[in-house]
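Here is one chain, start to finish.
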Amino acid sequence: MKDDNLNEKEDIIKELVNSGINITPSTLKILLNLDDPLKKVKSVIKNVSFLPNFNSHLTEEILQNISNKKSQKSLKNVLIKNTDSIAIQEKDLKQDLINEISGSLNAAALEKIKIKSHEISENFPQIKNNLALNTEETILHNNHKDLTKTVIKHKLQRTSFERSKSSLTYRPIAKELAFSYDILKDPTDKLYTNGDYEDFYNLTVDKFNKLRTLIRKRPEVLSANNINNILRLTNSVEVSVIGLVNEIRKTKKGNFFLTLEDLTNNINVIIRKDSENQENVKIAERTINDQMVYIEGTYKPAEQGKSGIIYGNYISKIDIPRDYEPNISPDPISIVLISDTHIGSKEFEEKLWTRFINFLNGKLGNKNQRERAGRIKYIIINGDLVDGIGVYPTQKSDLLITDIHNQFKKATEILSGVPDYIKIFYSSGNHEPVRKAIPRPAVPKKYSAELIDLGVLCIGNPSLVQTHNVNTLVFHGDSILDLNMLIPGLENNKPVDTMIELLKCRHLAPIYGKKTQIAPTNKDWLVIDKIPDIFHTGHIHINGMDYYNNIALVNSGCFQTQTDFMNSLGIHPTPGILSIIELDTLKGIQLDLKNNI
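Its structure:
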């Protein structure tokens, strides 16, 4: 009999998959309880196509809305059986509840249970007719929420379909699914450095070797020679080479002059402004020091007293393959990407945050927005959760909370409103009580202990987080300002364009020695060696969302209005815009908490 049930379950799942329909575990359980379930499933598949709100995810609410009378009748029979079973147990409900929890509840709470149980007895016929019981929602208002919830669920054995009959009750899909996550990359506890010359040298060599490995995955690069071998040539010949840009400048004639270096030597390269391939000129314009590039061209040996030079006719960066196929989740859930809340600042937008918490709890928005909120299973906070202390001159005058420990207490308080079925990842930024230089470790436990007790997972920056098969690269974005100042056309109010440049060169801070502080560790944690499915940055306080070669890009804005310091940098923030990515489709949604909901 058990094998028959298993085969029946497999047949149903196969039928749904072939029709392009996902199903939650609780909904599958309901269908399996029907008479001739496979036949009913085929009828359900046929009828859901007529529902305007059906989006390929079969839930209990969708089952309710199916207009087919046969299906409805069959479903109703299953529910009535369950309800009759409840009626048998209901006689003993009051005393059983009192016996099981009397040792844990105070007298006042116990009296509430008696009253509510009496109400159930008086109204049971009406409850049965409606095929729904609201006992749990009523009783859970006392001070012993978790214990009472467990007992009521055990006694009433209500199906999830019955519970969803109440249109006023928030039933998030994400709550039905277990967590499935892994931290694939985190520099915490691995950042060792003495700060001497050897550390800087080892960092550069590791960067070169990792980037060279990445660029050699491109088939046209396999013939590239090392610089020392090219310099030995005595005749003009076509060559190809890969190397880090040691210097790049525009000549008086408008050509681009580069010096490339590898582990063997360095060589000069000219990219003419009148190149037949104007794409070369565009790439050269957006090339900066310390990036790895691939060059094809004609090598002309050195004349007496001069160095040999390559006249380039093709230049490219490592980039992301155009046909990259991102991973997606098998489950219909979403992730929210936020950053830069700056708790402790006078400009922290607590009212917008409260709206965010209400949204997560199904207390804000229309039906579609509440359904969207119900899919949220994960939140990533990408740095600057707190405003910190002494981060910039005159910061004290901008602070509402001037003690770092109290800032974290406040952070714990506001994060406690997030439903417990949502997992929070918290990565450190430049305002956290960790070192300024990147990569950064996770916030130490002496500051984050209460957050950890809340269930928050603290990680370093950058990190690579996998949630339900989808990989999110988390980088606070310290280098964005540097690139915006160095590369023509990049602007602070268009962060996604800068993110694309980082992906093209496969490094999170490609230039060394500008405002971005980079720690000289013996391993370069900033190389993008594994292609992410989602790339998440912050820091710039301006929301942006787009795609590049099928990768979802999000700069998550902030929850802080403009400070005088931000004004001095010309940054005009966009607080309170939520960035949500559906993990099963990688579709991005932006919700403005000020206007849209």
